[in-house]
Amino acid sequence: MPLNKSLRTTLLTLTWLPVLYTFTNHGYQPYQIKGSSMTPAFNPGTSSTTRDIVLVQKFDIKSRNDSIAKGDIIMFRSPLDPEKLLTKRVIGVNGDHVHPRSPRYPKSEVKIPRNHLWVEGDNSFHSVDSNEFGPISKGLVVGKVVMVLWPPSRLGQDLTRSI
């Protein structure tokens, strides 16, 4: 009898693995934010061991034009290194005119092309963003950060900022 019960528990657990896989790859997934480019929104502490964990919404991001707006924080694949995930705030969307913060950027004003975004880190001194690589394609977007999960003192913190 104990073998049947443990086998049943194992099979029941295994049946939930596809559900969990689908949920984290296509629904919501927690991610750890590293670095200081988004301080003070993320990792506001002075300790290098402080790392926020956020919840990223992955579904319905690329299907609608209005799913990503100015002020949203997104996670995307770096155009310079696709293996690397970056987290930045959206400053400009399709058709907007943006003035880059970096004097090294070749233009003083950029019109954001169709299906592209201009992204910048909140901490401009420690951020590699559109001021370095220009507008990013929406195809690089992995998801939109919807809330801070860790540390508990910042759970549900408002992440929006008017642009």
UniProtKB/TrEMBL annotation:
It is found in: Mitochondrion inner membrane. This is Mitochondrial inner membrane protease subunit. It comes from Candida oxycetoniae. Pfam families: Peptidase_S26 (PF10502). One of its GO terms (biological process) is signal peptide processing. Keywords: Hydrolase, Membrane, Mitochondrion, Mitochondrion inner membrane, Protease, Signal, Transmembrane, Transmembrane helix. It comes from the Eukaryota. Residues 11-99, 109-150 form the Peptidase S26 domain. The active site is at S37, K88. NCBIfam families: sigpep_I_bact. One of its GO terms (molecular function) is serine-type endopeptidase activity. The keyword Transmembrane helix applies.
